[in-house]
Amino acid sequence: MKKALPKKDILLVSTSTTHGTGYLEHCQNEIKQLLGERKSILFIPYARPGGISHTDYTAKAREAFEAMGIQLTGVHEAASPVTAVEQAEAVFIGGGNTFLLLRQLYANKLIELLQKRVEQGMPYMGTSAGTNVAGKTIGTTNDMPIVFPKSFDALQLVPFNINPHYLDPLPDSTHMGETRETRIQEFHVHNRQPVVGLREGSMLRISGEQIELLGPHSARIFLQGKPAMEFKPADDISFLLQAY
Q1: pLDDT confidence of residue 171
Q2: Which residues cross the membrane (predicted)?
């Protein structure tokens, strides 16, 4: 019997910037559709390990959302991160280092709260690391483990893992190391959940029991013990929500 799923409204983007576009410019239409009539969003900038402060990172995100008529505030600007998430109309988690991001989400006691709010229908948007933590675990991130989080278990907003910035092997490359596909196959030796290889410019839109691949590219989907599969944006990949 098909299990009932809560009403979720999620946009998972591979990257915040594609070649030749500004920050979030390539996914503006999808962001507007996600937010609908909402006029504010809470930004979580925890993923940045250095080189840019939470304040500067938030200012960059704020500029992009203000251009869409959306007011953005940073979770670090609030007296209580928990209260900020409780009161948020929507949440956006940006990219950076996935290990650092997940550690900070645990440290600020936001894991269960974000799960609860999203299950209640609060829109969630992630890019890169923010997309990684929406999955079952962070076991398929490309990032270096610069810190050790409490657990590799992530927000589990979807029952699969994602590999943002998925790269295909270059046909004329002399590189002899593992490909992304090889590493995901290695992941599946010890882990059961599906993995979505999300190419740059691509995104997943989850609405209730439906999942849609958006953007200009196909996605490469990996199931344990089976050959990798390619799905085009027009294809139905909602089976991923019922995988395990």
Answers
A1: 75
A2: none
